[in-house]
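Hi V.,

Quick status before I head out on leave. The structure for the redesign project is tokenized and pasted below; the design run finished overnight.
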């Protein structure tokens, strides 16, 4: 199985290298429009220019807003999700509010957060937090509801109270769905973070892309996209690692 995984990784790397090389050759030979699709080597070289223009500062600002929104949104989302997944009564009370608010595009609520908090970091993080909140809540609730009643009966038969049920059954049984929800929430949160930086043209990765579009610096535009992709890959890898470490009985080899 390990050799099969290694082979798959080699295949993925080979496909990526082939596509990048094909792009490079096609752009340099003008088989594709080099103004729209500049060679990857030129995009990579342009990172040196961005580095001199406070690249790290812009990435740091985006990550601060993103991670702040994740923390503020995920913790209550997971907590409430486990509660409504475990308690039928709580689910009946909370479900109407979820049905009303969840379909609203969270970026639409950003102007409301500006009215409440002002044009500052709190308004931006609040939009990200609300985006993150619902996937965490819904997946956590689904994870708690899918736990077999048999596990609850076993803990009760040994005299376990509600705290023991939560610690030994609800939380570990819901972890795979919680982490899946967190992965979805993180991707959506990153999307909203960058979209907000477009909207208010505040410093960050979004502003790099927006300014590149306004000035037709296409290499900067692609560089911003690459940075976002790398952040997404890092998030996905980290959550998969947590899944393997925290739920070894669920994680596939």
């Amino acid at each position: 199985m390990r050799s099969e995984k290694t082979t798959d990784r080699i295949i993925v790397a080979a496909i990526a290298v082939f596509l990048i090389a094909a792009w490079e050759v096609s752009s340099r030979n003008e088989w594709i429009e080099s103004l729209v699709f500049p060679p990857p080597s030129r995009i990579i070289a342009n990172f040196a220019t961005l580095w001199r223009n406070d690249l790290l500062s812009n990435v740091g600002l985006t990550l601060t807003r993103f991670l702040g929104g994740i923390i503020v949104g995920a913790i209550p989302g997971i907590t409430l999700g486990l509660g409504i997944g475990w308690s039928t009564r709580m689910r009946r009370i909370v479900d109407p509010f979820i049905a009303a608010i969840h379909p609203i595009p969270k970026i639409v609520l950003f102007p409301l957060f500006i009215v409440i908090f002002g044009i500052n970091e709190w308004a931006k993080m609040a939009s990200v937090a609300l985006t993150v909140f619902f996937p965490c809540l819904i997946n956590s609730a689904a994870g708690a509801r899918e736990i077999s009643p048999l596990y609850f009966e076993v803990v009760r038969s040994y005299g376990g109270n509600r705290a023991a049920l939560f610690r030994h059954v609800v939380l570990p049984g819901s972890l795979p769905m919680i982490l899946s929800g967190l992965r979805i929430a993180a991707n959506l949160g990153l999307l909203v973070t960058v979209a907000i930086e477009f909207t208010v043209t505040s410093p960050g990765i979004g502003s790099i892309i927006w300014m590149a579009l306004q000035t037709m610096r296409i290499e900067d535009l692609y560089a911003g996209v690459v940075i976002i992709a790398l952040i997404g890959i890092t998030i996905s890898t980290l959550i998969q690692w947590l899944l393997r470490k925290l739920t070894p009985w669920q994680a596939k080899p």
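Above is the designed sequence. The radius of gyration is 22 Å.

G. will cover questions while I'm gone.

Best,
W.
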